[in-house]
Here is the input.
Amino acid sequence: MSDRIIIFDTTLRDGEQAPGFSMNLQEKIELARQLQRLKVDVIEAGFPISSPGDFESVKAVAQQIEGPQICGLARARNEDIDCCWEAVKDSARPRIHTFIATSDVHVEKKLRKTRQEVKEIAVRAVERAKKYTDNVEFSTEDAARTDWDYICEVIEAAINAGATTINVPDTVGYSNPWEIENLFRYIFENVPNVRKAIISCHCHNDLGLAVANSLATVRAGARQVECTINGIGERAGNASLEEVVMNLKTRREFFGFETSIDTSQIYPASRMLTRFTGVSVQPNKAVVGANAFAHEAGIHQDGVLKERTTYEIMTPESVGWTGQGMVLGKHSGRHAFKARLEELGFCLNEEELEKAFEAFKVLADLKKTVFDEDLIVIVHQQALSGDLDRYILHDLMIEVGKNGPSATVVLRSNGDTFQESGSGDGALDAAFSVIKKMTGLEESVLTNYNCSSVTQGTDAIAQSTISLRYKQKEVVGRGTDTDVVRASVKAFVDAVNRLLMTETREPVKDIV
Ligand code: KIV
Ligand code: ZN
Here is the structure.
């Protein structure tokens, strides 16, 4: 059996479908580029039939990203599989991933079928996908709660029908390392044609065991691990890619497996996702949390200064954590700027570079020190800001007089300028109320607000994230500025733009 573990990233599918993690087309493509730099083997780019937006983004990723296999998800239905193929077919290495639930509770209560019917549907789905491509993955949804003999029967039938990867998900995060390892061993011992396919795991984190369970399946013979950046995904999330990969790498002598991952791209990937979704990782999160490499206790600091390995089992550099070294200042030229962006993994075209450089010069004038983190924000806010700018914050005046705070907001849209004033409980409340009125979103509700500094110092860039709900839609907007109020108002305008542009995703029903 191979000693290489295939890393299947589903950040753009299982991760993105979780509430609060939605991304726009441009962000998805940019994240897919980062996954390419990370050298994942497979990118699951979305669920094409679930919405026109998902279809477009899977298609765009398939057309633009070279290297990894590009996969789309499809229920075991003809329309789903046909639509999935349309979305992935432009990739040099397309994959169709089709699935059906096999646990009794899903089969009887959700699908209202018999086990025999489900097996037949699975076979027909794999055969249909196989007409399009040889690269077909089949998943037995809720496998961890499925009868072991039945699961073996379905897997054998799916492999006979042509599935080249069989994914055995713990859909509800129910299992534990001992049990799931046994389940995988049982599959290897009882499915006669099991060696004709790669067996894969896909573990959810409801009981906090997704990474441990994934590693246990690897010990039992799984050679593909499905995971997401920062562990995002349905409910408590999926197995976190960075934790799975760094376990395999740091304990290479124990596990004995390689992955293709360029681990120095892990931290940039984690940060990019955080910026796009507005959801930070907890400070003590393994591998990518802000404290993951911080040694606070005196004894630890003393030990690390004498010999790093006393308290460090992996280096920050190995996961791409470069710290916040001052890199550029106001005298830095275009050449140094471009070179540093390239080191950070950004390859901008001339026009993007020009926009980013102008923004850098403005920032460098305001700040004495410009850190890598500032540069990354600049690139995302200025050069890659894309088609979202339905409204742009042109000007903002805040007054805190004796009659209470008031705000005057000037917005621009399609070359027109709009101005409106109003009051509120505080400066931000006043500005937000004015913007709601100007954009016809009076009924929208602010559900989350956050503002923090990107780097150190009183002149640091402030980054604000705002969640805004309107009817069934909830979006996250982001804004950055050296002034906290402006950063917050920019985030609010960004959220408004997203609300106006985000389509509503209908829930996808699982009726075959
Ligand atoms: O958790 C799950 O079972 C899934 C499948 C669609 C693979 O996400
Ligand atoms: Zn899942």
Q: What stands out?
A: The domain at 386-501 is CATH 3.30.160.270 (Double Stranded RNA Binding Domain). The first helix runs from residue 11 to 15.
